[in-house]
């Protein structure tokens, strides 16, 4: 039987990706599936698919996001500050660091969760190279090597390719999970993703 694989498109500023991170890993473990981690430039995805950045949305939509975050945080027992001090800064370097780590065969989950936690729980600016260096060191990773590789044209090109690939696949938001060309948008669709993999 062919091993299932999930293409996982996510933004390194996505509070919803943070909420779904552990459950996606648990799902993959249960189903014997592999996860292909693909950080994307979500503002670019939005510009090409009709999306609207949070700060530009109607007040009613912004208010409902906060309501939903509170609901999911209670349900999952995870804390997220809906309005962190450094909210949704440029995530390009953080994305390239995650890609570089993945290309080295390092475990991606603890790293990208640590970056997301820094933004949504710890009031840290994840666009700052110094902050990202600290996070890498805290994770026991070689910050000098990963920051060097993250700045390489090869990693930048892969980041660009993931973003283009996401748009071509029909992705329009984060997180999105793609299994056998079927899209599941949002961490609230993880149960449906698992049913698809299990053939239920």
Continuous helix count:
9
State the end-to-end distance. Answer: 17 Å
- Give the CATH topology: Glutaredoxin
Mean pLDDT: 97
Domain tally? 1
Cross-sheet strand order for the largest sheet: 2-1-3-4
Report the sheet with the most strands, covering strand number, pairing sense and barrel closure: 4 strands, mixed
Task: Fill in the keyword field for this structure.
200 residues, alpha+beta, Glutaredoxin, 4-stranded mixed sheet
Describe this structure as you would to a colleague.
The structure is a single chain. This protein is α+β, with helices and mostly antiparallel strands and 200 residues long. The protein has a single domain (5-198), classed as Glutaredoxin (3-Layer(aba) Sandwich). Helix content is 56%, strand content 10%. The chain has helices at 15-31, 42-49, 59-76, 92-103, 108-120, 129-138, 143-150, 153-169, 190-198, and strands spanning 5-10, 34-39, 176-179, 182-185. The protein has a four-stranded mixed sheet. Helix 1 links the parallel strand 1 (5-10) and strand 2 (34-39). It is globular, with a radius of gyration of 16 Å. The mean pLDDT is 97.
